[in-house]
Amino acid sequence: MKKQDILTVPNILTLIRLLAIPVLARLIYVGKPYDRIAFFLFLGIWLTDLLDGWIARQFNQITEFGKLFDPLVDKLFQLTTAIMMTVVGKLPLWVSLVIALKELIMILGSLFLLRHFEIVVYARWFGKLATVLFVLAFASLFFLPRELSYLAHYIFIPPVACSLYAYFRYGQSFMRMRRARLRNKASDEAAHDHEI
What we know:
The chain is mostly helical. 81% of the residues lie in helices and 0% in strands.
């Protein structure tokens, strides 16, 4: 992979997001009087994610490195936010566990498809919707008083439900791609046998 394919504006923005994640984690942990700063940094990380995707598409700066690096940073962003919100008592443990399991399955599934089928998984509308719902739910936690933290159980039901639906749809897509690959492989082998 060439250096100029890595050092694009979208990839640099993604790197900045990556470097901002530990700062966000620290601000969430410290809490008051940094709650507002933590919220704006959280918002900035998410908006930068939208911006780098737009730049990559508009200026033809989509790279193989970015296709892997960008979603990996997104997953780290969500997971870090979930863990830190759980640590400070603003997020129920079950939500963090669901998010951790979700990201682990997505990473392993993406690596499997890339390694065995050379397929890079792109986010579909239902995956993007789940991400937006998670971001909105996390954003609400920055303003949720500690005594009302029990509401997080209900706030995260829509994003978790949407995420489960996304898994189901991605699973369907995976099975279709796998069947198509197996059919193509079988037809290639049959054509080869016929030539012999």
